[in-house]
Design brief:
elongated, 136 residues, Yope Regulator, Chain: A, 27% strand, alpha+beta, 5 strands
């Protein structure tokens, strides 16, 4: 079993979910039927990439407000990751990169994923309600 598959396996055990990497060395999770999280190994095989697709944000003034708010949060630099925008999915994304050499097993990363999910749910709820003031 290679590093990434073992890491995914360990995360699955910690979260009590049967997880497996696909042939492209990716693992996708659907969280609470609201958000999607993708775990992948970087092309250079140095980082584990975590991307949480929080919510679709349609074009218009509200999208601009969401992205401005997300940029302000990036400035604060939460250690859970940085917000970005996926043009392909028209969605707000929270992503982070974890160096392989610092990941000894999936338990520690599973704890991080739970924190990322909690933050994502706050943003997801705020976006769907149209109330960005609830973030913070």
């Amino acid at each position: 079993m290679d590093f990434f598959q073992k890491l995914i396996w360990d995360i699955g055990e910690s979260l009590d979910l049967p997880l497996h990497a696909d042939e492209n060395r990716n693992c996708k999770l659907i969280l609470e039927e609201k958000m999607a999280m993708q775990l992948a190994l970087s092309d250079c095989d140095t980082y584990v990439i975590v991307a949480l697709f929080i919510a679709e944000i349609p074009p218009g003034a509200f999208r601009i407000n969401v992205l401005e708010t997300a940029l302000n949060e990036n400035y604060k630099s939460t250690k859970l990751g940085y917000f970005s925008y996926s043009k392909k999915y028209n969605a707000l994304v929270l992503e982070n990169f974890y160096e392989k050499i610092h990941l000894h097993d999936g338990k520690e990363l599973a704890n991080e994923l739970e924190k990322i999910t909690e933050l994502g749910l706050v943003w997801h709820t705020a976006i769907l309600s149209g109330n960005l003031h609830s973030i913070g």
